[in-house]
């Protein structure tokens, strides 16, 4: 089934919208949050959550259409509304990811080389759409046709073991949230800068995104986990790119979890919280596996939240720039090792991980 | 506002340095007039567009390098300012622009690459977060190649490199060692005709946007709103 099935709240027509959804059954809790900054102009696609009940396989994903390099109008919708290249791209990538995943369970499609790999399928889809997209007058090396990020986690639960594969292009991220070590990234942004705090401070240009007019790649990183209870997270930079330190995003996740009474309330609070601090569209997908219900997730994460909250409560006045810089550096220094522990290695860097943890790249584009 | 969000508000604004390279030869009257008219409102207009994109500016500084043609008259080939902080120095900015007269130019290629080289060597902001170092080139003409006979003139700037390759090295690329521009901060926005060197630069140089114009028409097809929106999209 494609989740979520029950909206926790609906967009209000004519206003900057947010949509929050949640699903809670024994063994499977999901939620998604989608917010837009300008009414009707949200360039993130709604998060994608799919869970295949029969095989305990699933996928969660987010998509962030890139408004700077994809600001030109690409399409007019059925009501005549102009839609930017970024707006179209994120929806196209969502459609492509969903149809690719579904195709994995149809024998004839799984064998079709055009659609058997995710980047191959996206390439085919984006090229099919591109001729109808209007070209911008602006050209140049920063310009992209239908540019979007993608961050996804494909998972399968087998005998209590979680097989997990991260797939990404651009600077959207996938994580696992653990009760002992907190939030651990399993993707690595496609930017020249590789330090997550420096990325926050610089907001660097991406070196690889999904698009219709250039080569692109989708990176893959597989890890297997044991333990029986897992929380998987995918998010666009609207959630983690407008905070002081990388650890603040985990604080947002856990503070909202700690005060929620249900998965739906958690989703609603996340939407309200991110809308209050972000400067961008923001989207988030969460899948918790192996928990009896929402209350067990909250209980399981409570000690970690207490520890994290103690760290963040030492933050100085944000108006004191020098004190903030020192605090950010110290906070990142303490947080970094666990945060990066499951990240894929840097390209070309020697790795001590086993073959299951090797990242690989599959190309796409023209 | 949700109390939980309070610690994150107002975080990480953009420190924006812009160098306007303006062709001040005779045909450029239309865009020069438009830029002059916008001098006092430039900061508010850019901030408004940025705000609409969810980005706040912590500091905005503007520098102007007006250029004509060393081959025509080396004495007025370059007129420039240092960085002026807006809005505090908006009157100084307007005063400088007001003094630029569109004149001369001689043959069609102008000294645009010299202006670009001077812009690359600007004393860019280096301390604040989310720095953006933006060079905006306004011209309706191709440019003389670097290292030509003009480079021997007495008033030719010593800081200008002697070849296009050397200028490219100063602009830099991922992993380059000789770049003077900061890779994550730099942007080049060209309002220039689809002619050399601009049409090659827009693909060969990274972080570049090119709005092709009609050669010899003074960029009269561009509205200031369009120019500001293009600059904002580059940030």
TrEMBL record, chain B:
Residues 18-143 form the Hemicentin-1-like von Willebrand factor A domain. The keyword RNA-binding does not apply. Its main location: secreted. InterPro entries: HMCN1-like_VWA, Thr-specific_kinase-like, vWFA_dom_sf. PANTHER family: ALPHA-PROTEIN KINASE VWKA. The keyword Transmembrane does not apply. This is Hemicentin-1-like von Willebrand factor A domain-containing protein. It is found in: Secreted. CDD domains: vWFA. SUPFAM superfamilies: vWA-like (SSF53300). Keywords: Secreted, Signal.
């Amino acid at each position: 089934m494609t989740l979520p099935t029950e909206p926790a709240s609906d967009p209000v027509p004519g206003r900057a919208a947010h949509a929050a959804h949640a699903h809670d059954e024994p063994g499977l809790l999901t939620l998604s949050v989608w917010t837009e900054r300008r009414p009707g102009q949200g360039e993130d696609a709604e998060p994608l959550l799919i869970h295949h009940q029969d095989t305990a396989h699933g996928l969660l994903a987010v998509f962030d259409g890139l408004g700077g390099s994809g600001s030109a109008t690409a399409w007019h919708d059925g009501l005549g509304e102009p839609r930017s290249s970024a707006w179209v791209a994120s929806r196209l990538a969502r459609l492509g990811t969903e149809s690719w995943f579904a195709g994995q369970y149809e024998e004839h499609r799984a064998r079709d080389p055009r659609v058997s790999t995710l980047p191959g399928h996206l390439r085919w889809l984006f090229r099919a759409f591109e001729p109808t997209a209007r070209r911008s007058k602006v050209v140049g090396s920063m310009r992209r046709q239908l540019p979007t990020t993608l961050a996804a986690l494909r998972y399968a639960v087998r005998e209590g073991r979680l097989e997990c594969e991260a797939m990404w292009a651009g600077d959207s991220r996938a994580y696992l949230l653990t009760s002992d070590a907190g939030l651990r990234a399993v993707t690595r942004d496609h930017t020249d800068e590789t330090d997550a705090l420096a990325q926050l401070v610089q907001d660097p240009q991406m070196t690889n995104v999904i698009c219709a007019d250039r080569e692109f790649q989708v990176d893959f990183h597989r890890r297997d986990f044991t333990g029986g209870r897992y929380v998987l997270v995918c998010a666009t930079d609207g959630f983690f790119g407008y905070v002081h330190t990388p650890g603040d995003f985990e604080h947002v996740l856990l503070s909202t979890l700690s005060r929620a009474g249900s998965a739906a309330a958690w989703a609603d609070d996340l939407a309200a919280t991110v809308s209050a601090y972000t400067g961008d569209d923001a989207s988030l997908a969460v899948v918790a596996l192996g928990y009896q219900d929402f209350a067990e997730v909250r209980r399981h994460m409570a000690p970690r939240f207490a520890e994290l909250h103690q760290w963040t409560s030492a933050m100085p006045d944000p108006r004191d720039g020098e004190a903030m810089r020192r605090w950010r550096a110290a906070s990142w220094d303490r947080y970094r090792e666990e945060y990066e522990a499951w990240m894929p290695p840097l390209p070309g860097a020697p790795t001590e991980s086993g073959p299951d943890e090797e990242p690989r790249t599959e190309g796409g584009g023209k | 506002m949700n109390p939980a969000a309070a610690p994150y508000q107002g975080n990480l604004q953009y420190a924006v340095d812009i160098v306007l390279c303006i062709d001040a030869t005779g045909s450029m009257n239309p865009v020069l007039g438009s830029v002059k008219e916008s001098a006092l409102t430039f900061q508010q207009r850019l901030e408004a567009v940025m705000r609409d994109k969810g980005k706040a500016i912590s500091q905005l500084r503007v520098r102007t390098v007006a250029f004509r043609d060393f081959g025509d008259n080396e004495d007025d080939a370059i007129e420039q300012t240092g960085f002026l902080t807006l809005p505090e120095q908006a009157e100084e900015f307007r005063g400088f622009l007001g003094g630029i007269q569109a004149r001369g130019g001689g043959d069609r290629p102008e000294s645009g690459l010299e202006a670009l080289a001077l812009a690359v060597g600007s004393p860019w902001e280096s301390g604040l977060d989310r720095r953006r170092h933006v060079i905006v080139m306004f011209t309706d003409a191709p440019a003389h190649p670097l290292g030509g006979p003009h480079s021997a003139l007495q008033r030719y700037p010593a800081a200008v490199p002697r070849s296009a390759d050397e200028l490219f090295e100063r602009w830099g690329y991922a992993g380059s060692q000789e770049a003077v521009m900061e890779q994550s901060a730099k942007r080049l926005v060209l309002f220039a005709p689809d002619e050399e060197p601009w049409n090659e630069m827009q693909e060969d140089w990274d972080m570049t946007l090119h709005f092709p114009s009609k050669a010899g028409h003074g960029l009269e097809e561009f509205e200031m709103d369009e120019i500001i929106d293009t600059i904002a999209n580059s940030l």
